Fold this protein.
Amino acid sequence: MAPANDPTGRGSTRTAVVWSGLEPVLRAGSCDVLDIGGGTGGFAVRVGALGHRVTVVDPSPDALAALDRRAREHDVAVTGRQGDLSSLLDVVDPDSADVVLCHGVLEVVDDPAAALATLARVVRPGGVLSLLAAQRHAAVVARAMAGHFQQALAMLDPTTRPGAVPPTGRTGRRYSHDELTALVVDAGFVVDTVHAVRVFTDLVPGSLLDLEPGASAALVELEQAVAARPEYLPLATQLHLLAHR
């Protein structure tokens, strides 16, 4: 299995910043990790390979079956349970996780505030929430660059209170830095870091990464270099937030 900072391939350019943020948490010692919406185990199996006890909760039985196959292929023990954030406390106990991964899920829940309140009940005191969510400002730029100007205009300013961002189409909600941090703080977490994820990766042609020697490694280095710079947060496709309870 590739290490967390393996700079090869487009996949690593999409996940390198997230793994860099998580690595100090995961290297601190063996812990109970809950992966909400972990699907086929792209993150979960890699976390389990570090010696952690990992549980994936996902609504798709097909994804959980793929997770089981992936875990067996890598000789890693990962537990899969069918469910979602709305029914999370039916399948896991309160105060049962040292680390909760919630990556790409907050965009599609009906009530983000309620979802984060549920996660706060699952994370043990002192435990860590790793939250990865789509960032709205970059989505506005992407829509405009694709010629979808009315969609871009509609995404500029949410009309509801801060933190309650309305759905924006089939891909769900998008959040600004302030909206995301406000939701997390209101749920009872203390925000530790927020990193920009995929500032450049989605703008770089895949053919360049495939054909240009060293391009992927150089792109990973660039993404890492800007991840902690606040001026790049509005340009990021995603925001990665780490918080503790």
